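Lecture notes, part 5. Sequence design as translation. It can be helpful to think of inverse folding as translation between two languages: the language of shapes and the language of residues. The source text, in structure tokens, appears below.
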């Protein structure tokens, strides 16, 4: 994709360069302000560890560690859980970490670990830590956790956040997605601290290693004032034998073409035939129509997935949905409309009646088991 246009932002220390077919001119005027400088060779990264409801390190955190290591910097993982020794062991054994920092404060040890998913609790703690340690980069996944916390930190620390990063070029330069993934923007920042959320599907997951990173303890001077921030009440999690959407190697998604929630049973039957690797997703249109619950939504305002195989059934291919799945390794589209936009990005396309195609495909797979 060719570089087509550079855009000055309102903040003078940020430079944006936008790539995309909808931009037809290229402005070569210098955009860097006098405040620009480089921290090359002196970077210190802090990765904010996000845990799953079961206490496991999240896929987004593993990808964040990989992104941070691209700077060849010292990488520290901040683990805020105070009661899960298993989580400590798992984080310590993650490749790419030079150290692990854990919360050590008697005033906060009686808090439920879920309370540490609330940005109002975390922001003052991390602000205090940053003022003490002076990290050059703070990383988080572009998930509900990261999208809630990083902007709040940016306001507290007076820096511009850089969101949805897909490439790390240097300590100051990153590529991020804009316009629902239809254009790429090169962002060059001279903020002394870079606050970054990364797209989990754009980076490999950090692997486990036999070597364990050393653990340090952070003792914040201030304690949380529980009466001034929201309180975690409970998680209501849907239970399924199928893998979670973000980690499944095969995702079968349905759109409005399925017409009703009862017809999603065809997709569940196909996923069962492909067990244990397949999960079922849906478009926002299907969710808004009440066909399936919103935890199945894939897209710009849902979950971002990049499985080995993505099967789009009865999906037209709106850009909001494509933003959540177009990084899939192989895309198969099944739609009766040969002009549907989904076929433009599909590796394989089948024009036909999904109500005949999906049951037939399921039957063939079961016969060949």
């Amino acid at each position: 994709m060719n570089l087509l246009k550079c855009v000055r932002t309102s903040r003078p220390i940020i430079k944006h360069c936008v790539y995309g077919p909808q931009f037809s001119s290229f402005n070569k005027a210098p955009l860097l302000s006098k405040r620009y400088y480089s921290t090359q060779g002196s970077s210190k990264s802090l990765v904010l560890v996000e845990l799953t409801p079961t206490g496991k390190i999240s896929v987004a955190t593993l990808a964040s560690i990989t992104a941070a290591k691209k700077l060849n910097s010292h990488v520290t993982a901040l683990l805020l859980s105070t009661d899960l020794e298993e989580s400590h062991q798992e984080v310590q054994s993650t490749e790419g970490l030079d150290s692990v920092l854990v919360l050590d404060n008697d005033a906060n040890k009686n808090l439920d670990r879920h309370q540490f998913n609330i940005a109002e609790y975390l922001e003052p703690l991390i602000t205090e830590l940053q003022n003490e340690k002076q990290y050059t980069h703070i990383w988080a996944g572009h998930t509900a956790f990261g999208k809630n916390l990083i902007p709040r930190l940016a306001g507290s620390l007076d820096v511009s956040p850089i969101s949805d990063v897909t490439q790390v070029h240097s300590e100051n330069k990153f590529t991020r997605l804009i316009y629902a993934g239809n254009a790429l923007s090169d962002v060059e920042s001279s903020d002394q601290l870079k606050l970054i959320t990364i797209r989990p599907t754009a980076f490999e997951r950090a692997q486990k290693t036999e070597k364990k990173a050393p653990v340090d303890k952070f003792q914040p001077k201030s304690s949380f004032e529980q009466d001034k921030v929201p309180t975690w009440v409970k998680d209501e999690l849907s239970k399924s034998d199928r893998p979670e959407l973000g980690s499944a190697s095969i995702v079968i998604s349905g759109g409005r073409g399925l017409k009703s929630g009862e017809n999603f049973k065809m997709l569940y039957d196909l996923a069962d035939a492909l067990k244990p690797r397949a999960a079922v997703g849906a478009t926002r249109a299907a969710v808004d129509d009440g066909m399936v619950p919103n935890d199945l939504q894939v897209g710009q305002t849902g979950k971002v997935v990049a499985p080995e195989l993505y099967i789009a059934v009865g999906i037209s291919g709106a850009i909001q949905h494509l933003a959540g799945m177009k990084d899939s390794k192989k895309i198969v589209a099944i739609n009766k409309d040969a002009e549907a936009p989904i076929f433009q990005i599909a590796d394989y396309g089948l024009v036909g009646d999904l109500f005949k195609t999906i049951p037939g495909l399921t039957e063939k797979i079961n016969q060949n088991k």
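The translated text above is only one of many valid answers, since several sequences can fold into similar shapes. The chain is about 20% helix and 25% strand.
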